[in-house]
């Protein structure tokens, strides 16, 4: 069987195609909620630092949802996991639609954390859980492509709605779309999706599973074994948080269109991200990670210097490729460290990133208030450069052996 036939047979099954559609729709409707969030808070008179503090409450509710998501996926309850994801997004959008005060914003923002925490862990773990372990790179790269497309086109639509008609209309649109997605998930996702065969991996992981037996129930979907790999994200995910919450605001501050660049970058990055997954599965994960971390440094420098839509588009392209490649690499490392328990590995990774975001949210708010949107990108670029140093040190000490196809 040649490589094209192999990938077609393993990656383009009917059940996987259904999951692909759900992942795209999830990221699209979730970004319909996230895109107006910072601008909406600022419009209510909330400062950047206070928004950061509110975001910390968001991270606590994120953490509460990770274990639930990881457990559902590891138990093979895929349709239920997906349906719950769209349900919580719909409820969250309706609550934002009703917000009229700073207190109301804070309360709903807190609940958004549960939405983000649950959906992020559940939808990211789907493909690594149903594909064979040797394809975890391709699985996560495909997830990144679909999520990137959803996250690329939603900001343009959402920003167009809230700048023209107001924030309530933007959240009403998100509520309608997520309710439609909920119905599609119940109708289009098979009830009997098969998990990947990981019996040999579970045998290797028996010691870790036995140790987990003594944990409280709310922690059994998590594992400390992957924390050293997660530490890479300590110095990288600040860029993800920055782009999620401040890139649209950067465009408003500078008077340039950044949303078109985000959409273009998401489209252009598709081929690169697919190639990234193939390279990871063929043993090049270490080199791919290094290249992607370097791209994130370049992206932050370009965004900080951007004075035109063209520069913002270039920054978006480097960001999309960098973050889209870094994430499959990090998930691959975590899944290799915790074989046979992809749901727990990914839930732990997300849980760790929630803790990191407790610092990121306040730090980014402080940087925005004190340095402005341009200079905060330069600072984050320096932090990403430090991530490269840590990554190289970790690789040298870990001597990680990554499974190849």
TrEMBL record:
What superkingdom does the record give?
Bacteria
According to its UniProt entry, this protein's organism is: Hominifimenecus microfluidus
Q: Where are the transmembrane segments?
A: 12-34, 40-60, 81-99, 105-127, 134-154, 169-189, 217-238, 258-280, 287-305, 317-338, 345-368, 374-395
Q: Please give the SUPFAM superfamilies that the UniProt record associates with this protein.
A: MFS general substrate transporter
Does this entry carry the keyword Transmembrane?
A: yes
What name is this protein filed under? Answer: MFS transporter
Q: How does it sit in the membrane?
A: Multi-pass membrane protein
Q: Which GO terms describe its cellular component?
A: plasma membrane
Residue ranges occupied by any Major facilitator superfamily (MFS) profile domain in the UniProt entry: 15-399
Select a single GO molecular function from the record's annotations and give it: transmembrane transporter activity
List each coiled-coil range: none
Pfam families for the chain = MFS_1
């Amino acid at each position: 069987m040649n490589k094209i036939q192999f990938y077609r047979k393993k990656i383009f099954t009917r059940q996987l195609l259904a999951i692909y559609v759900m992942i795209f729709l999830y990221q699209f409707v979730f970004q319909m909620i996230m895109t107006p969030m910072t601008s909406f808070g600022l419009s209510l008179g909330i400062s950047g630092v206070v928004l950061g503090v509110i975001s910390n409450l968001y991270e606590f509710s994120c953490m509460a949802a990770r274990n639930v998501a990881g457990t559902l996926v590891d138990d093979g309850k895929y349709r239920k996991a997906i349906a719950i994801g769209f349900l919580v997004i719909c409820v969250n959008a309706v609550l934002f639609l009703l917000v009229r005060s700073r207190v109301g914003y804070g309360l709903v923002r807190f609940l958004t954390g549960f939405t983000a925490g649950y959906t992020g862990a559940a939808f990211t773990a789907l493909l690594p859980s149903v594909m064979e372990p040797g394809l975890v790179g391709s699985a996560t790269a495909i997830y990144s492509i679909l999520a990137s497309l959803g996250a690329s086109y939603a900001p343009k639509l959402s920003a167009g709605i809230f700048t023209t008609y107001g924030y309530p209309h933007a959240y009403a649109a998100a509520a309608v779309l997520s309710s439609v997605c909920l119905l599609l998930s119940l109708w289009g996702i098979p009830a009997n999706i098969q998990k990947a065969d990981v019996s040999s991996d579970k045998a290797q992981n028996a010691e870790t599973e036995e140790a987990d037996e003594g944990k409280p129930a709310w922690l059994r979907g998590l594992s400390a074994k992957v924390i050293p790999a997660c530490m890479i994200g300590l110095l990288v995910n600040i860029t993800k948080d920055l782009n999620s919450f401040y890139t649209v605001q950067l465009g408003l501050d500078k008077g340039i269109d950044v949303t078109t660049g985000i959409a273009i970058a998401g489209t252009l990055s598709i081929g690169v991200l697919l190639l990234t997954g193939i390279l990871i599965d063929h043993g090049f994960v270490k080199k791919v990670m290094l290249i992607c971390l370097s791209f994130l440094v370049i992206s932050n420098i370009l965004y900080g210097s951007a004075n035109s839509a063209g520069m913002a588009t270039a920054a978006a392209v480097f960001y999309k490729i960098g973050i889209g490649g870094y994430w499959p690499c990090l998930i691959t490392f975590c899944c290799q460290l915790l074989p046979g328990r992809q749901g727990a590995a990914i839930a732990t990774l997300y849980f760790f990133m929630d803790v990191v975001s407790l610092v990121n949210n306040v730090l980014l708010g402080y940087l925005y208030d004190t340095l402005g949107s341009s200079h905060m990108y330069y600072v984050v670029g320096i932090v990403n450069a430090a991530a490269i140093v840590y990554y190289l040190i970790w690789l040298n000490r870990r001597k990680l052996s990554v499974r190849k196809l």
